[in-house]
User: Fold this.
Amino acid sequence: MTADGRRRTGVWVGVARRLALGGLVAVCALVTAMPRAHAQAGDYIVGPQDVLTITVWDQTDLSGKFSVDVDGSFTFPLIGRVQVGGLSLRDLEAMLKARLSDGYFKDPQLTVGVEQYRSQRIFVVGEVRSPGTYALTGEMTLLEAISKAGSATATASDEVVVVRPPVGRALNGPLLPTQAAGENSVRINLRDLQSGVESQNMKLRDGDSIFVPRAGSVYVFGQVKNPGAYLLQSSETTVLQALSLAGGVTARGATSRVHIVRMVNGQKTEIKTKLGDLVRVGDTIIVPERFL
Assistant:
C-alpha cells in the first residue's frame, strides 16, 4: 500500500473510532437518564380514569394497558380486582409484585407507567395565550404549566398567583385568589420564574389554579412627550421609568416638582415625589411646566 493509501486508511479508522465512541456515550447517557426519569414519575398518584401501562418481563399475556375505573380500581390478570386509587406508581409496582409473588411467580419484574393522565388536573387562567384546564402529568412545575398554556401575554403583570384548594374539596373550575384564604395561595414573581430562579418554580398539585393577572395602568400627564395610560408590569417601577414610558420629559418640564395623585382610603391625595420613588397601579403622575 502506498503512503497516501495508508494515510487515507488511518483517517477512516479514526472516524470510525470516534463514531463508535459517540454512540457509546449516547447509550450511556440514555441509560443514566432512565432511572432518574422513572424515579420522578414514580411519585405520581394514580386516580380514576388514568390509563396505565403495565409491563411484566417475559410475561406478555400479563402486559398491557389498563384503565382505572371511577371507583379507583381495575382488573389485573391472575390477581383480579385491585384498588389503586391514591397509590403512587412506585407503591402500585410493589403491590403487584407482592401479589404475583404469592403463588404465581418467583421474583417477578414489572414496571408501571402512565399512558394517559386523566385523574389529576390544574387550571391556568388570566393573561396566558391558551387559558384552560390541563392534565397534571408527573411532577409538573409552575413554569411547565404556564408553557402548556402558551406562556404569559405581553399584558401580564410580573406576579403569578397559585391558589391551592383545601384538602378534600372537589373542583369543577379554577379558584381565583379572592376565593382562597391567604395560606392557600402563593405569589410568585413571573420575571424571576422566566429567568430560571429555581426557588420560584414550585411543583404543582392536583386542583391547583394558576392565575396570571393583567398588568395595571399608571397615568402620565403634563410636560411629557406622549401623555396617556401605560401598563405597569412591574411592582418595582419608579417614577423615572414611568416617565420614560411616556417618552420622557419635554424641555419645558420641571422634574423637581413632579407629583403623584393617588387614591388613599377613597380620597384623592397629592403626593410630592422623587424620580426614584416607586409608583403604584392607578397612580397619576403629573409633570408641571417649569418656571421661566
User: Anything to note?
Assistant: The radius of gyration is 30 Å. The chain has four domains: 1-41, 51-116, 121-212, 216-287. The first strand starts at residue 51 and ends at 56.
